[in-house]
From TrEMBL:
Domain LysM positions: 59-107
Species in which this protein is naturally found: Acinetobacter baylyi (strain ATCC 33305 / BD413 / ADP1)
Protein name per Swiss-Prot or TrEMBL: LysM domain-containing protein
Cross-referenced PANTHER family: PHAGE-LIKE ELEMENT PBSX PROTEIN XKDP, POTASSIUM BINDING PROTEIN KBP
InterPro entries attached to this UniProt entry: Bact_Kbp (IPR052196), LysM (IPR018392), LysM_dom_sf (IPR036779)
CDD domains: LysM (cd00118)
């Protein structure tokens, strides 16, 4: 019962899905509705003006291995997050939203708006005809390996935090099973060794993850007192339960991740994280104001392009996987040379980020662009509509 309670408590922090090494672009329509896994969300339809093309946008682009959807979008648009508005999804082809290396993308125009689609040998005329439904072509099947799909962002940049990190409430791990010791009486253990786990609910032949507690995330409540809003857990190993006696379970470690297992480490059900499948702009009303970067993962205080950061906004405040935000650095306080007053300069837009994993009150995000070093305390806001 205790293990079931822990698992139920964790489900709100995970999004289940296939752990594959390709991130599929899932666009159900060019402008209308988009899909994130099994979740349906509204796409960016707020913009009346067509997305502005980037200077020197190519009329033809051949997709290469190593490309990402964000990079491809940036070749065509000043605002890459508006990509869903210009992608010509072909409803007559199975998985029309997927892009692969070798695909020939054409920049076309439909009713004065830019439109990008995959060339099937009939140029822009064919792309527009299929996009608008003015075709009688039969459905086609394209056979490709899933790991060839062009990713939204590079998986290796976020894999550690996507697959081997989570944030839970202190309440949810109070009764979690923990490492009691090793079978050979060593203090540390790694892949290939056996450990003893104390706690209820573990089942033989089931896989479990071993987590180490990190620095808790805190905030101040209405009375000015510090409140823990989440505890970060980093996976250090995984293993299989082999036998149980009373509340002691023997577990064989099958994998280690950059650290050895210690006494006191937590043992929880191994979950599979859902990879982000699409980026899209955030409406101002969707997420509660006041969002900030509160931690830079793997660094003390400064982040840059390709860094992973933690935001003080989670599903409770309206965040969703795939949302894109602008980053605003806090303006400096300078002394007016004439009045000698201390004046705070305006906050500066220095980049953008995308949320790739959400929890109750916190989220992990990936910095897509940054013109200056990003510091803890930087604000996040919905992208500006102006191009």
């Amino acid at each position: 019962m205790i293990m079931k309670k822990v698992l139920n408590g964790l489900r709100s922090f995970y999004q289940l899905g296939l752990k594959q090494h390709g991130l599929a672009l899932a666009i159900c329509t060019g402008i209308g509705v988009t899909c994130l896994g099994s979740t349906t969300v509204e796409a960016a339809t707020r913009n009346i003006n067509p997305p502005a093309l980037k200077a020197g946008a190519p009329n033809v682009y051949i997709v290469k291995k190593g490309d990402t959807l964000w990079d491809i979008s940036g070749k065509f648009l000043k605002k890459p997050w508006r990509w869903p508005e210009i992608w010509a999804s072909n409803k007559h082809v199975k998985n029309p939203h997927w892009i692969y290396p070798g695909d020939r993308l054409l920049l076309c125009t439909l009713d004065g708006r830019p439109l990008v689609g995959r060339d099937q040998g009939d140029g822009c005329e064919g792309i527009i005809r299929r996009y608008t439904g003015r075709t009688t072509l039969q459905p086609q099947v394209r056979i490709e390996q899933l790991n060839n799909i062009i990713p939204v962002i590079p998986l290796d940049h976020i894999q550690q935090w996507l697959e081997r990190a989570t944030i839970v409430s202190a309440e949810n791990i109070k009764a979690a099973p923990y490492i009691l010791g090793t079978t050979d009486q060593r203090v540390l253990a790694a892949k290939g060794q056996q450990v003893y786990v104390r706690g209820q609910g573990l089942q033989n032949a089931q896989r479990y993850a071993v987590y180490r507690e990190g620095e808790p995330y805190t905030t101040l409540d209405e009375h000015g007192k510090k409140r823990i809003i989440g505890i970060e857990l980093l996976q250090v190993a995984s293993g299989i339960a082999t036998q149980s006696e009373n509340d002691i379970t023997t577990m064989e470690l099958t994998q280690s991740f950059n650290s050895e297992v210690r006494r006191g480490d937590l043992v929880l059900p191994e979950e599979q994280a859902m990879l982000p499948t699409l980026f899209y702009p955030t409406e101002a009303h969707q997420v509660m104001e006041g969002g900030k970067i509160i931690r830079v993962m793997g660094s003390i205080s400064t982040a840059g392009k390709h860094s992973v950061v933690t935001l003080n906004r989670g599903t409770t405040q309206g965040t969703q996987v795939g949302q894109v935000f602008d980053i605003y650095q806090q303006g400096e306080v300078v002394k007016d040379p004439k009045t000698q007053e201390n004046i705070k300069l305006p906050n500066q837009n220095i980049g953008s980020l995308m949320i790739f994993k959400t929890f109750d009150e916190l989220s992990y995000a990936y910095i897509l662009e940054s013109s200056l070093p990003v510091k803890v305390g930087a604000e996040i806001k919905p992208p500006r509509e102006e191009d």
